[in-house]
Amino acid sequence: MSEQAAMMSEAANDTAVGATMAMSTSSPPPTSPAKPKLDLTLYLVTSSSLLPPNATLESHIESAIKGGVTIVQLREKNLDTAPFIALGKRIHSITKKYGVPLLINDRVDVALAVGCEGAHIGWDDMDYTTARNLLGPTAIIGLSVSNVTQASLAASTTADYIGIGPVFPTRTKPDASTPLYPPGVRQILELIYSKRPELPSVAIGSINATNLQAVLYKSRPAEGLPLAGVAVVSAIISSTDPESAASTLLSLHKAPPPWAPPPQSQTTVFTHFYLPLILSKVVTIIRSIKEHKPLVHHITNAVVKNFSANITLATGGSPIMSENMEEVADLAAITPHSACLVNMGTSGPAERRLYALAIKENNKAGKPIVFDPVGAGATGTRKETVRWVLDECGYVDVIKGNEGEIRTVAGEGIRMKGVDSDVGGGVEELVKVVKGVAGRERNVVVATGATDVLSDGTRTILVMNGHPFQALVTGMGCALGSVLCAALAANKDDKLMSCLAAVLLYNTAAERAVKRDGAKGPGSFSVAFLDELYEIGELCAKGEGSWLNDVKVEFM
Ligand SMILES: Cc1ncc(COP(=O)(O)OP(=O)(O)O)c(N)n1
Ligand SMILES: Cc1ncsc1CCOP(=O)(O)O
Question: From ligand 2's centre to the CA of 61, what distance in Å?
């Protein structure tokens, strides 16, 4: 305590940088320094042990600030007090030059001794009130939270910001709590907003250039403050080029993610009154498949490959079946109109690596991903693959599955026998599940069955068309994924409308197929179905929409 008191008096003699920074902008009287400006956009947290060989923390931090870091936290777990203070002072002389606040991790005494702008404290550290009393009202103080209980307590303080994490598993903090993943971050943001609507937050834990946009997008609450920024350690500290690492992260932060729909592109008038308008869009979308012949990269199971390729061709798309990791990036970038189907028909470690790569490369190229969680509830491995794809691999634009699969994705403990779904809940109940998953993932969910349920979390559509023969042909369910891909690749404006077009095309083709001469059972039906897909496409190419006369849809 006496050591701390001594440091506090030393700090009082030192020029308070918060005051200096604030004074340089608004010149308040020296006796009442204002709080330094807090910009959490790109928050660098240090760890000298992760520096590349021959790099110094001083030069690394300076370069990172040049690249766009907006706030720095000195987090040095293995330093004794004296060298920690000495390092803090050296770093502070750098951050001050750029007007970037410096906070000290855990050690309020060191923050005082350094005379920097504040401290970041966790649950094992000094309590908030004591830290605030010691550091004073103008210091920046951040608090860590790892769950909603901590978030509730933290939001009842006057802390300046909240650090939410870990988002993902991280090697940088071996004692970190269970990962939250973006939906968990979102829950915490909602809780914080309900208690202190103006309190900003950052997310931390294995955030890097690959996942930053997905973290920001998927964690964004429907209402209230989104993340103010992201905090990173290894993504900048372990880089050999911290300036460009920081500037890449910053530009990703500023840019809309490639999968976000263009502003104002969504059909907002979604009621029966507008059915003719909606159906004319369906025709336009199917016509655009014919026009663009989108490439559909299939990562799918062996049983359905041939059928899926034929369905894609009949629809007007161009199928490619490839599980070669080496060509995933090329396929994602080869043409402006492409999409990738990730069908979890088989799900071992090699497939998981392939799915991750496909999602990463298609996210990067701004190409839609349709994820089919085949047999999701059948085994623990499949459940884990679903969790991993959705939590850790990036963003999937559409999830398509039968009721059991979608309920498993929602987190229900459904036991599926193989890949078939026999859960048999009512449609109303299913609508809630589908909307819930779509809202959680901020994407579109298509649940197939006698009534298909499509939702983007806000708008929900029921489609009652189709024929029971569809359930008797192997690959029929999986190949809908191909048509969804073709429609999404051809029309980027409104994903829900593209999915509706694909589902109406598919189910109407089935109804028309059984009316054809000779379609007496599943075998002849599957051939007639291909012909009908093709014929409907031809009608749409001519702008003809009469094939939609018998659609049975409901908007909710
Ligand atoms: C911005 C930010 N958020 C969270 C943390 C984690 O802090 P804490 O829980 O105190 O864990 P350690 O960093 O001390 O290991 C952080 N440091 N920064
Ligand atoms: C300090 C901290 N708190 C939660 S996760 C974490 C470590 C983040 O480091 P990285 O960005 O390297 O995963």
Answer: 17
